[in-house]
Amino acid sequence: MAILLVSALLLLTPSQVAPDEDLLLKNVSILEVLKSEVGALSNTSEQYSTQVQPPGTSHHIPQTIIVGVRKGGTRALLEMLDIHPNIVVAATEVHFFDWDENYVKGIEWYRNLMPFSYENQITIEKTPGYFTSLHAPERIHDMNSSIKLLIILRDPTERVISDYTQVYYNRLENRKSVQRFEDIVIKNGALNTKYKAIQRSLYDVHMERWLKYFDLNQIHIVDGNTLIKQPLKELQKVEKFLNLPPKILSSNFYFNQTKGFYCIRSDGRERCLHESKGRPHPVVNRTVLEQLYSYFREHNRNFYKMVNQSFDWH
Ligand SMILES: *[C@@H]1O[C@H](CO)[C@@H](O)[C@H](O)[C@H]1NC(C)=O
Ligand SMILES: *[C@@H]1O[C@H](CO)[C@@H](O)[C@H](O)[C@H]1NC(C)=O
Ligand SMILES: *[C@@H]1O[C@H](CO)[C@@H](O)[C@H](O)[C@H]1NC(C)=O
Ligand SMILES: *[C@@H]1O[C@H](CO)[C@@H](O)[C@H](O)[C@H]1NC(C)=O
Ligand SMILES: *[C@@H]1O[C@H](CO)[C@@H](O)[C@H](O)[C@H]1NC(C)=O
Ligand SMILES: *[C@@H]1O[C@H](CO)[C@@H](O)[C@H](O)[C@H]1NC(C)=O
What we know:
Blueprint: H1 28-37, H2 44-47, E1 58-59, E2 64-68, H3 74-81, E3 87-89, H4 100-103, H5 107-112, E4 116-117, E5 122-126, H6 136-143, E6 148-153, H7 156-173, H8 181-185, E7 186-187, E8 190-191, H9 196-200, H10 203-213, E9 219-223, H11 224-229, H12 231-241, E10 253-256, E11 261-266, E12 269-271, H13 286-307
Parallel strand pairs: 2-5, 2-6, 3-5, 6-9
Antiparallel strand pairs: 1-4, 7-8, 10-11, 11-12
Helix pairs in contact: 10-13
One 2-acetamido-2-deoxy-beta-D-glucopyranose (NAG) binds at residues 256, 258-259, 263, 270, 272, 275.
């Protein structure tokens, strides 16, 4: 499928290629989530593939969109789904439904950004910013009210730390001032619930907006932690949800001991998600962690009810 990819990886800026938030966390499996969510493909030949139109293909608007969540593992999910012969994926985050300056360009602009695909293929785009956008649900519904949506989520506290860390390293790279996690999250002894990263982890608040426009059976939630530990298991659920024949196999994954996570083998090529370089470990104060866990607890319970599904978050 890679041949059909637009060479848009070229457009990835260093700030979009995520930093190394892994080091925050002690557990290797969580570390894997963090590593794999960050990255672009490491095989550079792919990045330079040119956009040629194979006969019988055209640009189609996506029949499925991965709408979030930021730092949830959206890149890993997209790259893994790309293994399936009936799936083509857009290489970059398009930000059509969440950025007004793109939305005004119209649906044809959007369609033309999609990779070439055959009639029997599903086009998938991922822009994690959609999940928390006020306008995205309605706008996506306007485009196709029966669209299928994928959301990949992880423990909301882990997500906050990962979000913070990405911003932290972006700021370092841009020579801007940085603050300790605890100093942002705690203000005057209390949890700073206005902090954007915390707001983004209120999954119930955001989900409510999506459920105003879409039936629950149009939305599939991928467990980000499971995807990293047992990719095949989660991907088979997605194949089922998309009514695709099961074509993704265990042989499409191999565990790279050095990297500490799964890489992909398909179309005779091997590719791993972007690997970040070593960084110092921000270790979060236990008391602050507990405050976050307890803040999210009720929101999580509310979310489980909304989606009729439970997760083993703190
Ligand atoms: C790390 O993850 C494994 C399974 O993924 C779990 O059994 C173990 O308890 C975790 N360790 C810690 C310290 O969280
Ligand atoms: C809308 O989405 C559904 C579900 O993916 C798909 O079957 C249908 O073809 C889509 N319609 C258009 C116009 O893309
Ligand atoms: C495994 O990961 C290491 C370290 O990132 C990398 O150098 C190597 O090429 C990878 N091997 C495979 C087979 O993917
Ligand atoms: C990158 O892709 C090329 C051809 O598509 C392949 O020959 C090569 O082995 C791949 N390299 C890695 C590190 O996966
Ligand atoms: C963690 O933060 C609490 C207050 O929020 C403080 O009392 C405690 O000393 C901190 N612990 C460490 C190890 O820094
Ligand atoms: C909730 O999920 C259970 C099993 O996962 C299912 O049997 C039940 O029909 C679902 N309820 C709703 C309202 O979707």
